[in-house]
């Protein structure tokens, strides 16, 4: 089973979820299998993926290779995927999961998240897969989608269900009718966007939090238009004086300090890298601690600056 060492225990199921996982967003298809295999060989036991990333088949190839080589057993790893916006209708939820399971070569997921609180018109996979952020709004409520997610747990296809990119107000409403409570909320979270009130509320509800884009701007700089320009004109967190000073005092890299800042505050992280040395570096954050003053100073960088914002790329201000 997944080790409880350096892991969060999910309230809804009691399952351990590693504090540090391997994020697979923007990992190219031709590299995904090797990245996953190398990550599992290094010691990663959480893989964070989504159908929208377009690389689940290759990720599955990497998992299969690691199992065949005796590096892991299926029960040793925690695999996450996400339901895309075009599959929110009840009748589309299970087929979307089954496609993900087929691509990954797995019988079940450890965690399945609703990717965004946005429902778009259905796209048949034979027409376009991944469907992408195209098309008009679909008249589907979060309740309909969540109840379909709960049915996946009932069927034994998913161990835990959760949310991604949901606001506190939406979660507050969902908790009124949820038969199975969300195990995890995944959000953009870094020192430029600390979201302290949201995290405080999640902790009060015993919902674990996973941070994506923990290093800030890096994942967004390659995008066109304002979406990428916002990241390009923002100073890198890796070069902020506070982060550099803390890193020097602990003889660590800035990236390790930023990841430790999250983990030490009880938040899981899923950094990605195609480089072996970075994969190793991102795992090695459990043998040092930041002081309360260092945590506070890093948090003081907060600008409420969001990079993954549908208000910019889809004219949909879901976070406002």
Automatic annotation (TrEMBL):
Substrate binds at residue 115. The record marks 82 as: Lowers pKa of active site Tyr. GO terms for molecular function: oxidoreductase activity. Gene3D superfamilies: NADP-dependent oxidoreductase domain (3.20.20.100). InterPro entries: AKR, Aldo/ket_reductase_CS, NAD(P)_OxRdtase_dom_sf, NADP_OxRdtase_dom. PROSITE patterns: ALDOKETO_REDUCTASE_2 (PS00062), ALDOKETO_REDUCTASE_3 (PS00063). The keyword Oxidoreductase applies. This is 14434_t:CDS:1. It comes from Acaulospora morrowiae. The lineage of its organism: Eukaryota, Fungi, Fungi incertae sedis, Mucoromycota, Glomeromycotina.
């Amino acid at each position: 089973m997944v080790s409880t060492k350096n892991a969060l225990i999910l309230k809804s199921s009691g399952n351990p979820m590693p504090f540090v996982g391997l994020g697979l967003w923007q990992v190219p298809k031709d590299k995904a299998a090797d990245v996953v295999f190398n990550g599992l060989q290094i010691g990663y036991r959480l893989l964070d993926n989504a159908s929208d990333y377009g690389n689940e088949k290759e990720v599955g190839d990497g998992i299969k290779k690691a199992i065949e080589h005796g590096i892991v057993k299926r029960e040793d790893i925690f695999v996450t995927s996400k339901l895309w916006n075009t599959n929110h209708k009840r009748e589309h939820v299970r087929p979307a999961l089954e496609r993900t399971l087929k691509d990954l070569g797995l019988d079940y997921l450890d965690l399945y998240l609703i990717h965004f609180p946005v429902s778009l018109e259905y796209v048949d996979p034979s027409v376009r897969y991944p469907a992408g952020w195209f098309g008009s709004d679909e008249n589907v409520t979060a309740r309909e989608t969540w109840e379909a997610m709960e049915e996946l747990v009932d069927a034994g296809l998913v161990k835990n269900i959760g949310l991604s990119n949901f606001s506190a107000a939406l979660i507050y409403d969902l908790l009124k009718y949820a038969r199975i409570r969300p195990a995890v909320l995944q959000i953009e979270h870094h020192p430029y966007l600390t979201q302290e009130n949201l995290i405080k509320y999640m902790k009060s509800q015993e919902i674990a939090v996973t941070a994506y884009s923990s290093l800030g701007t890096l994942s967004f700089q390659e995008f066109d238009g304002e979406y990428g320009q916002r990241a390009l004109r923002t100073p890198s967190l890796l070069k902020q004086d506070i982060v550099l000073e803390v890193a020097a005092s602990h003889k660590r890299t800035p990236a390790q300090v930023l990841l430790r800042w999250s983990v030490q505050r009880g938040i899981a992280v899923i950094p990605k890298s195609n480089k072996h040395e970075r994969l190793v570096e991102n795992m090695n954050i459990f043998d040092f601690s930041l002081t309360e003053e260092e945590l506070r100073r890093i948090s003081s960088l907060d600008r409420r600056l969001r990079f993954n914002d549908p208000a910019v790329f889809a004219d949909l201000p879901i976070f406002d």
